[in-house]
């Protein structure tokens, strides 16, 4: 969410210590909340649309824009900044963040950044190694404060563990790059990827109001969970994306699926 020249190029572990505090009295208060690009995760959208009492479709239309990643051809939701000189976050005022308890994961981590390296592929999929780094922007005075943290204690304080757990299966899709053997996503699959990642209300309608359940063999327990539980639907959406991208046989077709797929 910051310019690359603000990234301190040192790979850090959870035990790394630093001093930082952000509060209303600090000179740079909310300066980090403008002129930034915040990529949203599926769970970010769930939290924000519920906080605002909006459908996922309305939230995405009002507060985000779609960006196609040039390395993967995957579509991602980017938080739309306000149309002013500072390009401020639409949820920030002079008093601070108006959605603070439901703020996105990137905002929670700041001034810590999180990176992921794909080490190898195992029988259960890619093996990922997570690491951390500091984002030290010139305007930020938070590093001059006396409050001391480890990255582990910062993550606990900012409640990012839950966000990371919900998004864990989706993250490898975010990191995936196009290979010579895997062509770019066509527009239809980009729409499906975006819907199953972000527009969960529309994805749920697609599952229950089309022939989806006649095509795919989904057990009744899963059907009932995804009917009402957005976190379960995020996890199911990952399986659907992997299936349509032919990354895994993550869903099973019913024996008579062909007669429904043609309709």
Domain count, please report it. 2
Q: Are there runs of 5+ residues with pLDDT below 50, and where?
A: none
> What is the alpha-carbon Rg in Å?
20 Å
Helix fraction bin: 25-40%
Q: Estimate the mean pLDDT confidence.
A: 90
**What is the topology, as strand order, of the major beta sheet?**
1-8
Distance between the termini: 44 Å
Question: What is the helix tally?
Answer: 12
Which geometry do the CA atoms define?
globular
Give the biggest sheet: 2 strands, antiparallel
Instruction: Return the structural class.
Output: alpha+beta
The count of β-strands is: 8
Helices and strands, in N-to-C order?
A: EHHEEEEHEEEHHHHHHHHH
- SS strand fraction: 15-25%
Précis, in short:
The chain has 263 residues and is of the alpha+beta class. The protein is built from 12 helices and 8 strands. It folds into 2 domains: 172 residues, no CATH class; 75 residues, no CATH class.
Describe the structure.
The protein has 263 residues and is an alpha+beta fold. It has two domains: 4-175, no CATH class; 187-261, no CATH class. 38% of the residues lie in helices and 16% in strands. It contains twelve helices and eight strands. The protein has helices at 42-52, 56-63, 105-109, 151-158, 160-167, 171-175, 187-197, 200-209, 212-215, 220-228, 230-244, 257-261, and strands at residues 17-19, 64-68, 75-79, 92-93, 96-97, 112-122, 125-134, 148-150. The strands form four sheets. The chain has a two-stranded antiparallel ribbon with strand order 1-8. Strands 2-3 form a two-stranded antiparallel ribbon. A hairpin with a 2-residue loop joins strand 4 (92-93) and strand 5 (96-97). The protein is globular, with a radius of gyration of 20 Å. The chain starts with 16 loop residues before the first strand and ends with a helix. The model has no long low-confidence stretch (mean pLDDT 90).
């Amino acid at each position: 969410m910051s310019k690359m020249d603000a990234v301190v190029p040192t790979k850090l572990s959870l035990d790394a210590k630093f001093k930082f505090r952000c509060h209303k009295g600090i000179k740079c208060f909310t300066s980090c909340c403008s002129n930034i690009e915040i990529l949203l995760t599926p769970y970010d959208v769930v939290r924000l649309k519920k906080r605002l009492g909006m459908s996922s479709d309305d939230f995405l239309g009002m507060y985000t824009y779609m960006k196609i990643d040039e390395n993967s051809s995957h579509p991602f939701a980017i938080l739309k900044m306000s149309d002013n000189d500072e390009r401020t976050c639409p949820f920030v005022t002079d008093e601070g963040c108006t959605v603070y308890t439901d703020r996105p994961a990137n905002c929670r981590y700041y001034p810590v950044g999180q990176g992921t390296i794909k080490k190898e592929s195992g029988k259960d999929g890619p093996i990922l190694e997570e690491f951390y780094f500091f984002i030290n922007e010139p305007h930020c005075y938070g590093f001059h404060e006396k409050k001391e943290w480890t990255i582990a204690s910062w993550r606990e304080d900012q409640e990012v563990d839950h966000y990371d757990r919900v998004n864990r299966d989706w993250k490898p899709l975010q990191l995936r790059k196009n290979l010579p053997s895997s062509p770019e996503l066509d527009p239809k699959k980009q729409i499906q990827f975006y819907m199953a990642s972000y527009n969960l209300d529309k994805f749920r309608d697609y599952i229950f109001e089309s022939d989806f359940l006649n095509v795919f063999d989904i057990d009744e327990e899963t059907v009932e969970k995804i009917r009402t539980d957005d976190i379960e639907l995020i996890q199911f959406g990952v399986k659907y994306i992997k299936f349509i991208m032919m990354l895994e046989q993550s869903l099973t077709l019913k024996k008579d699926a062909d007669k429904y797929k043609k309709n």
